Amino acid sequence: DVSLSGTAAFADKNAGTGKTVNVSGIAGNGADAGNYTLLNSTASTQANIAAKQITVSASGVNKVYDGSTAASAKLVSAGIVSGDDVSLSGTAAFADKNAGSGKTVSVT
């Protein structure tokens, strides 16, 4: 009965593929661990961190008729990890220039 334990950590927190993972403090445990000598107590490998999906919505797009489809929208996000600096930008436009309520607004 032998098991190994250690602590693994990515080299950085950012999403990506083939990222280095460092393992430290590797130790043998279990009833038969004394029958083995570890040649190293550290190791490394590679793994992936998938990008987190966020939700973006637009609000505050009402305006007074001005003959154009231009719109000004406030973009709001949900799901951003605390401490990450993310800014959103886009261009908003009404489906047509005519006055009315319940108008479709596209943000690209």
From TrEMBL:
Q: Which domain of life is it from?
A: Bacteria
**Which residue ranges does UniProt annotate as crossing the membrane?**
none
Query: For the YDG domain, which residue ranges apply?
Result: 2-42, 51-108
Please identify the protein, giving its name as recorded: YDG domain-containing protein
